[in-house]
Amino acid sequence: MAEADITTTNVSLWPRTDNEGKTILGYTAGSTEFRVPAKLSDELAAECARVAVLAHETLGLRDLSRSDLIIDDEGVVWFLEVNVAPGMAETSTVPLSVTAAGLDLGGLFAGLVHRAVHRAAHRSG
In this structure, is residue 118 part of a structural domain? Predict the structure, then answer.
């Protein structure tokens, strides 16, 4: 599998509000507006990618992770958490990112499985 860099495909999440102006919270389909790619300047998108990759590498992760970040009013990127088993449901951001990067989700997963099998075969001799 060729290495693919989807870290530059940022997804922004914007909570929706109900008819009374109250924010709809939770993982209910349709409760959040996903913007793919996120509407960020090139510089801010690059900084988000840098922070996400730094977290991934610093933690010694491999293959796939999702970093959650926020950007404050001054444009500073803040790292919140990294998820090594991100969701793959309708309301999940990884499938959106993969598709926005022009990659095939099934092909990406097949490649990840292939890499894991290859690692396991080399460990067992």
Answer: yes
Q: Which DSSP state fits 24? A: P
E-strand ranges in 1-125 read 12-15, 32-35, 66-71, 77-83
> How confident is the model over 45-100, as pLDDT tens digits?
889 989 999 999 999 998 889 898 989 889 999 999 999 988 887 668 888 888 88
d(CA 110, CA 112): 5
Is there a domain that residue 5 lies in?
A: no
Q: Distance (Å, rounded) from C-alpha 43 to C-alpha 114?
A: 34
Q: Residue 83's domain is classified under what CATH number?
A: 3.30.470.20
Query: Which residues, at least 6 apart from 94, have a Cβ–Cβ distance to it below 8 Å?
Result: 64, 66, 86, 87, 88
Which residues share a beta bridge with 69?
A: 79
Say if CB 96 and CB 78 are below 8 A apart.
no
How many secondary structure helices (H) and strands (E) does the chain include?
Answer: 3, 4
User: Which tokens in the block code for residue 5?
Assistant: 């860099």
